[in-house]
Each structure stands twice: as structure tokens, then as C-alpha cells.
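Lab manual, section 2.4: Encoding a predicted structure.

Procedure: take the sequence of the chain (210 residues), apply the prediction step described in section 2.3, and record the output as C-alpha cells. A sample record is shown.
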Amino acid sequence: MYTLDTNEARKADTQGNQIKEIGKYVGQITQAEDITAKTGTRGVALSFTSNAGQKTKVSIYTMKADKTKIGGFSMLNALMTCLQLRSIAPKPGTVTRYDYDTKKDVQEQGSVFPDLCKPVGILLETEDFAKNDGGTGTRMVLRGVFQASTELTASEILDRKTTPEALPKMVAALRHHPLKAARAMPERVHGGHMPDDQFFGDDDGDSIPF
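Recorded output:
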């Protein structure tokens, strides 16, 4: 009735585990929620599950309330390039969020980017942050993305390269950021409606290889 599958056996050791180590991971984006911080800063909250069954959640903040682009805007465009998406738009959908009062995941209606829910490779670092109770916590931070099937980075894809060269250097540069170098912890976020403006730069469409 059953034949031993050693790969599935290995997955059982990591199912449900949270990613806590710096490194390179290949897996699937399982949820991409349109979010807005209390300050009005826009972004996308990503839920990711690695091929080994480990999970993490990271947020990419893309623009301020006045639509000024911030660092995460480039990261989101890199992600879109790796997924070969020229534009994305939010749609109503069910999202899983952590309820800080009940300390459980709950499902609610929100705004999501279903086109981002595809296989991808990500690079994660760790960073310390100041907790509200005065303590110090550690969280995972997205530092890079790459195409899962080829290990090409966004720049390599746009340059029509076929051999991945940048990724090993990016992996070697990953590190932990202590509290004094860490960014301030972002405000708790909530779902919001994304403007009709699409997430992509000013490149001439003919220069995009997909």
C-alpha cells in the first residue's frame, strides 16, 4: 500500500517549523497581502514555505503615504522580474493573519496579490529589534530574490543571461544585524487597498525579456 519515500520522510522533521537561519531558500509564496501601516506606508506581506516545509513571513514596504518610493519598491520589482510579471493588482481575498489577542492565526477578508503566489527563491538575513515590552527580539529579513528554476537574479534575467553568477556572492554576504544596526520595528500592519498604479518601473516594455 505504501512505499518508502525518503524525501517525504525528511520533510516530516521540518513541517510547521519556522525559518530561523540565515541563508538561501527555495519554495513557494503562499500568500501575498496588500498592507498599509498606520503611517500610511504601503507594502506587501509575504508568507513563504520552503520546499523542506519551513515557513516564514516577511514584509516588503514599497512607498510612503505620499507615494514616495522606498527601498522595498526595488525588492518588489525584483520579485516580479523573477516571477516574470509585468504588473500586479490587488484583489479581494481571504488572508491568514496572526491575532495578537488570541495568539492564533485567523482567516479574514483582505486584499491580496494572487499573481505573486508562485515558486521563488529568497535570501534571508536575521536582525534584532526592540520589542514593545523593552526586550529584544530577532526576526527574518528579506535581502534578495532569485528565480527558483534557474537561480538567476532579476538583473541577470533583464540582461538575458543564462548562467547564474550573482547568487553565490549574495549568499556569501548574508549576515546578522545586531540591534544597534537594526531598523526600527515597523508598526503593526493591516490590510488596505492598493492604488491603481501598477508596480513596475519606467522601463520600455521592449527591453523586458518576458
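Check your result against the sample. The longest helix spans residues 71-82.
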